[in-house]
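ingest -> validate -> predict -> emit
validate: passed (alphabet ok, no gaps, 276 aa)
predict: started
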Amino acid sequence: METGNTMNSEEIEIDLVELIGVLMSRLWMIVLFGALAGAFTYLMCVYVITPQYESTTKMYIINRQSNETLTYSDLQTGTQLTKDYQELVTSRPVLEQVRRDLSLDLENKELKAKISVTVPTDTRIVTITVEDSNPEMAKAMADAIRNSASEHIAAVMNTEAVNVVEYADLPREPSSPKVLRNTVIGGAGGAFFAIVIIILIYIMDDTIKNPDDIEHYLHVSVLGSIPYVDEKAGESDRKRSKKKKRRKQEYSSKTATTPVNMAVLRPGTEVDKGGY
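emit:
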């Protein structure tokens, strides 16, 4: 029981230097996983995910508390009603009116999911953004929502006017997916996954690798060690050495049977070149 409790109470010690060495030795695996994940993400973004386009329109809401000129109190009151504007733009009457005007085959919740409404701080400018796979349809829906919301806000809040700040634009480039950003994120995620796997394998590996591990984990002294000899590796080495010896013998036999004519000339000796 005491031995079991001792084993359970032991903490896992990690040698950071050794761990870094293991990661560096498996660097090819980390790079491979990152490259594969990045390539997979890129292919998904280009060939699988449907591009989405965003069209934005803006309107300005004027709400006076009196028939006189616009005051600071009017501006402050309008700023406090930003959440009301957001709710009114995506309310059911507005969505149903847009569906009828454009003959959309969408439910209210599906159309609402395509709309985002924002009101910048300290302003009464309502920004409506619509996202769709068709850029022309995104522009048409943004304008239709602005027109329907203007009428609905004027009727519900009794505002003086709802003016158009910007008409919906026709998007030229898709807003999503972000191919480059997603590819980088996918590659980084793949590399991180490989690092986690390598670390887990390193932590769970309880095999004895050197005499220091025996003294550390088993608490016994090492008197001696027997080197491990791989028989297959030794046999292949012997075969290679035999081939080298055979080649040397063949080369020496060839050089011994080939006649070699040599002439030694002293400095200043004249050579007769007439016979050549």
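The radius of gyration is 41 Å.
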